[in-house]
Design brief:
28% of the residues lie in helices and 30% in strands. The strands form two sheets. Strands 5-4-3-6-1-7-10-9 form an eight-stranded mixed sheet, with helices on both faces. The longest helix has 12 residues.
């Protein structure tokens, strides 16, 4: 069975967006981005809500010839190659390749997808990930905590969900970012 992984870049106080909805402060430097690229290679399918999908669409336009670093170009290739499933009641059609629109988030459908997938799945967006965590579907948390306190905004982790975590990995980056990888519920996979 494939793992469902929630990866988030958050402030040290646990927010993925500040109170104005901004997240420019979360942009990874090349060292962190290279590490993210390595982690994302195992992902075959991204699960998104509409807003996160629209945010991630920037990667559909990045090419090797753009003025991006080789690291961001590589991430764009990884992202474009993966399947994307967007849970939205308002999005009529996908705007990128390898993408399909699903209606509402259905935990049973996601459980079946995990059971049949040959590669890991990644869930993007704090709200959608919170729904998956509440349904007991998330197997791993991968948190990149930045050296900034934003004082409020959109939390990276949902309220009202209580689960034990087992630390699997940690890493400190030269720019002050700290990576923490947890197994949710302490289950062995």
């Amino acid at each position: 069975m494939a793992k469902l992984i929630y990866t988030a870049i958050a402030s040290l106080d646990g927010y993925v967006e500040d109170e104005e909805g901004g997240f420019v402060w979360a942009a990874p430097d090349d060292e962190v981005h290279e590490y993210v690229n390595e982690l994302e290679r195992s992902v075959g399918t991204y699960l998104y809500g509409r807003r996160m999908y629209e945010t991630m669409m920037v990667w559909d336009a990045v090419s090797g010839e753009d003025e991006q670093s080789p690291t961001t170009g590589e991430y764009a290739r990884i992202w474009r190659a993966a399947e994307k499933i967007v849970f939205s009641r308002t999005l009529a059609a996908p705007a990128s390749g390898n993408t399909r629109i699903a209606g509402e988030f259905d935990p049973l459908d996601v459980r079946r997808l995990k059971e049949s997938a040959a590669t890991d799945l990644s869930i993007g967006g704090a709200q959608l990930a919170g729904q998956a965590m509440a349904a007991g579907l998330v197997d791993e948390l991968r948190l990149f905590l930045g050296p900034i306190v934003v004082g409020g905004g959109k939390p990276a982790l949902p309220g009202g969900v209580h689960t034990q975590l087992e630390l699997l990995d940690e890493r400190r980056f030269s720019g002050g970012v700290v990576y923490l990888r947890y197994r949710v519920g302490g289950r062995r996979t």
